């Protein structure tokens, strides 16, 4: 067998093999049109190679012309496929060039069938047997048709199209594809164009061998597609490893992790999620996330989820609101939730990291309870300090009641009962009884242990001042202290605990009284002022005592700091704790004249409150 | 209720109530009135002092703890003025130290609030009684003093000698006068002092607390 037959047959075989292979691959994955196009390119290249072998073996000009006549059809398939491939695979090349080249190629096919014998020759006069590489190859002798210039023009346009596409891809940074796909296509395209011109114009004496250029293109494209497949496989395995790692990280996470898809179905849950909610993984996967949300919160949650998928961003859920999860056993669990959106091939997902904060809440409650206990203890001790005054406060109404009642008994024993007098007496008894009741109520409030959930009353600080002044009335008399008040009108309420704020004022007033113990009794004056400032109410308690030594100014609110003999050093530190819990501020200043002023401020209702 | 004299009884005894707590004041005064005792109420020691007539009989029911001037201070002021008005203190719980002070200064009684009617009425009646006796004593004393004031210096000298138990002869010798003159002076003294015996005379002068040198 001649080597020409062998070489060209190998060419045909190689191209056909690739064509069939990629057609088969495409059949499995219909979306990948690039592979179908490649298959078309390879098939048409095989056809072209087969035609070339036929031409080499042609004996008569008629035979030669007839074979050559079919060739543009396969070239047409090849060009169209190649252009489409470039556009699809490289996502480059100007569309007007692509359309023009395809249009021209189509025109060539039409013109080719209009003329005889074909587009390339006006007529083939003879077939010459050219000795070629030790064998003979048929080459045509005849007049080239001017229409073959159309062929050349089309090839030229194609070359420009490829160069342009290559440059675009190169600039995009994808140099490998630019070189392998764009470069080889351009290079072999140039060879095809040159060879055609030279052979048809008879400049070189050789048979058509453009099929090898096409083979080059097919090999280059096939190589690149293969490369892509390998890379895709690498990526896939990497992805798998990554996914595995992701799963392991999620599994090992100390907080419950649950992934939810756009429909709200659980697509992933870790061990901690099982523990937190009491469901096994099988019970969670594929089920709606709502099953973990308490019934009363579900509708609000659905809206939230919808909004979140519209504006996905990593953030915490609830914005300081308390969140609850629903366990399998129906109990609720206090949680904190962080959300991260994840884009996946299956649409947007949300990874929720859920932390069970039950213990933290318990600890917070415990801390609040201890704070309350301490405040209560200090309050009881404060009240103890002036318990005799408080007893006095009760003595007055009780004395009045007893005397009134016994007076009434005596009046009633008289012969002419003065009923008006008795009526007056009874009225007074009622009034005094109520007064005693008020004292007891106030005392009981002060001695009562508030719950840690307090701090949410609306408190009128002017009322607090009035209550405390009333409570201390006797003590103030005993200490010879006069209290002046300067209260702001229409003071807005503050958020807090009425009793604890009373306690703070009581402490500060007792402190002021103590500070003036050594003063002349005419000098013992305490001024209590209230005022509104910057969203808070501020109370100031001004005494005329000895003031605070500058070196102690920083320490006065520290626990166990005291300058008094009997003092425990708890009063002011408890004031500090209480005002802190009210999100307020407490401080002391020395007066310009004599004495010191203690101030504290508490935000008014709606300011500084948790939203 | 206004304070001040409620029941104008210038001749009968009046209980003066001084207490800063109006309901207590009113109730105590009612209790006393229910027992037929005249009362006058005052909201503060200052108010009481402004209206008080030392001549009026009765007693004072005084709250010990009051703003500005307290019960103890009023007691002291009255003492300085030589008042003989008995003071019954009404004390609250825990006024022990003040009570002791008041006791030392001669308070008539202490009653702790709330006070039972019997306790208060008993104390008030006793105080009024005491006041009456004291006033009587005081009246007698001034009578004796008035009689003493009528004596001449010589008669007074004779009086002193007589009550110290000397005989007429000794007196005559001491004063350098005749025994007859002593007898005459002695008769004048007995007449002016309105006594029948030397023993009676001695009792009167002793009550007066004078030995002749006090005047």
Describe the structure.
The complex is a heterodimer of chains A (611) and B (215). Chain A contains 16 helices and 15 strands. Chain A is of the alpha+beta class and 611 residues long. Chain A folds into three domains: 3-233, Rhopdopsin 7-helix transmembrane proteins (Up-down Bundle); 253-356, Beta-Lactamase (2-Layer Sandwich); 365-603, Histidine kinase-like ATPase, C-terminal domain (Heat Shock Protein 90, 2-Layer Sandwich). In chain A, the strands form four sheets. In chain A, strands 3, 4, 5, 6, 7 and 8 form a six-stranded antiparallel beta sheet that branches. Chain A has a five-stranded mixed beta sheet with strand order 10-12-13-15-14. In chain A, strands 1-2 form a two-stranded antiparallel sheet. The model of chain A has no long low-confidence stretch (mean pLDDT 84). Chain B has 215 residues and is α/β, with parallel strands linked by helices. Chain B has two domains: 4-140, 3-Layer(aba) Sandwich (Rossmann fold); 151-208, Winged helix-like DNA-binding domain superfamily/Winged helix DNA-binding domain (Arc Repressor Mutant, subunit A), CATH 1.10.10. Chain B has a six-stranded mixed beta sheet with strand order 1-3-2-4-5-6, sandwiched between helices. The longest helix of chain B is centred in the middle third of the chain and has 34 residues, at 117-150. Chain A binds chain B through residues 388, 391-392, 395-404, 406-411, 414, 421, 425, 428, 431-432, 435, 474, 477-478, 480, and chain B through 21, 23-24, 26-28, 30-31, 33-35, 65-67, 90, 92-94, 113-117, 120.
């Amino acid at each position: 067998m001649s080597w020409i037959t062998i070489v060209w047959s190998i060419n045909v075989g190689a191209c056909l093999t690739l064509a069939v292979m990629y057609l088969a691959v495409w059949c499995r994955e219909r979306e990948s049109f690039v592979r179908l196009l490649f298959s078309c390119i390879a098939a048409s290249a095989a056809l072209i190679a087969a035609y070339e072998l036929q031409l080499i073996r042609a004996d008569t000009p008629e035979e030669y012309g007839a074979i050559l006549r079919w060739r543009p059809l396969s070239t047409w398939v090849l060009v169209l496929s190649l252009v489409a491939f470039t556009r699809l695979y490289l996502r480059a090349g100007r569309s007007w060039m692509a359309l023009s080249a395809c249009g021209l190629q189509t025109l060539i096919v039409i013109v080719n069938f209009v003329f005889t014998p074909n587009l390339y020759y006006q007529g083939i006069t003879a077939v010459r047997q050219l000795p070629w590489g030790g064998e003979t190859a048929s080459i045509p002798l005849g007049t080239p048709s001017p229409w073959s210039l159309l062929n050349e023009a089309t090839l030229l346009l194609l070359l420009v199209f490829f160069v342009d596409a290559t440059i675009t891809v190169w600039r995009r940074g994808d140099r490998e594809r630019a070189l392998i796909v764009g470069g080889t296509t351009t290079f072999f395209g140039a060879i095809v164009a040159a060879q055609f011109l030279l052979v048809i114009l008879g400049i070189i004496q050789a048979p058509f061998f453009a099929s090898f250029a096409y083979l080059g293109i097919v090999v280059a494209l096939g190589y690149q597609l293969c490369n892509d497949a390998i890379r895709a496989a690498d990526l896939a395995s990497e992805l798998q490893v990554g996914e595995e790692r992701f799963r392991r990280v999620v599994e090992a996470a100390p907080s419950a992790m649950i992934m939810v898809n756009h429909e709200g179905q659980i697509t992933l849950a870790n061990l901690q999620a099982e523990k937190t909610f009491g469901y096994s993984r099988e019970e969670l996967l594929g089920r709606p996330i709502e099953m973990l949300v308490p019934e009363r919160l579900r509708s609000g949650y659905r809206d939230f989820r919808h909004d979140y998928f519209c504006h996905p961003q990593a953030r915490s859920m609830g914005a300081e609101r308390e969140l609850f999860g629903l366990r399998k056993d129906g109990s609720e669990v206090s949680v904190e939730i962080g959300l991260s959106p994840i884009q996946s091939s299956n649409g947007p997902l949300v990874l929720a990291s859920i932390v069970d904060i039950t213990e933290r809440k318990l600890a917070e409650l415990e801390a609040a309870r201890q704070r309350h206990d301490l405040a209560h203890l200090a309050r009881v001790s404060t009240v103890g300090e002036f318990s005799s005054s408080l007893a006095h406060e009760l003595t007055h109404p009780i004395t009045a009641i007893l005397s009134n009642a016994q007076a009434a008994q005596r009046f009633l024993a008289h012969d002419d009962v003065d009923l008006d007098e008795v009526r007056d007496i009874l009225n007074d008894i009622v009034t005094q009884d109520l007064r005693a009741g008020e004292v007891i109520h106030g005392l009981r409030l002060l001695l009562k242990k508030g719950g840690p959930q307090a701090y949410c009353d609306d408190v009128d600080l002017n009322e607090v001042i009035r209550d405390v002044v009333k409570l201390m009335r006797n003590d103030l008399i005993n200490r010879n202290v006069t209290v002046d008040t300067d209260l702001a009108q229409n003071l807005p309420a503050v958020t807090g605990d009425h009793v604890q704020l009373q306690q703070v004022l009581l402490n500060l007033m007792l402190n002021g009284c103590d500070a003036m113990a050594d003063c002349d009794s005419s000098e013992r004056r305490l001024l209590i002022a209230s005022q509104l400032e910057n969203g808070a109410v501020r109370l100031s308690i001004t005494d005329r005592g000895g003031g605070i030594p500058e070196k102690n100014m920083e320490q006065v609110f520290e626990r166990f700091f005291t300058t008094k003999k009997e003092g425990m050093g708890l009063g002011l530190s408890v004031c500090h704790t209480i005002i802190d819990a009210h999100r307020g501020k407490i401080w002391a200043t020395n007066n310009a004249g004599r004495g010191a002023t203690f101030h504290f401020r508490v935000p008014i209702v709606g300011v500084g409150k948790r939203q | 209720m206004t304070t001040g004299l409620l029941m104008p009884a210038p001749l009968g005894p009046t209980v003066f109530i001084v207490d800063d707590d109006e309901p207590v004041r009113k109730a105590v005064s009612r209790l006393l009135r229910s027992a037929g005792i005249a009362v006058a109420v005052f909201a503060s020691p200052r108010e009481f002092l402004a209206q008080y007539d030392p001549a009026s009989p009765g007693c004072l029911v005084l709250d010990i703890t009051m703003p500005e001037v307290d019960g103890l201070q009023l007691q002291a002021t009255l003492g300085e003025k030589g008042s003989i008005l008995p003071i019954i203190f009404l004390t609250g719980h825990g006024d022990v130290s003040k009570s002791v002070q008041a006791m030392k200064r001669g308070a008539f009684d202490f009653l702790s609030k709330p006070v039972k009617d019997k306790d208060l009425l008993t104390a008030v009646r006793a105080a009024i009684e005491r006041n009456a006796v004291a006033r009587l004593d005081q009246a007698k004393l001034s009578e004796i003093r008035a009689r003493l004031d009528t004596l001449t210096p010589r008669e007074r000298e004779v009086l002193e000698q007589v009550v110290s138990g000397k005989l007429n002869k000794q007196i005559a010798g001491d004063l350098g006068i005749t025994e007859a003159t002593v007898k005459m002076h002695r008769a004048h003294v007995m007449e002016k002092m309105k006594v029948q015996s030397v023993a009676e005379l001695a009792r009167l002068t002793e009550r007066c607390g004078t030995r002749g040198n006090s005047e």
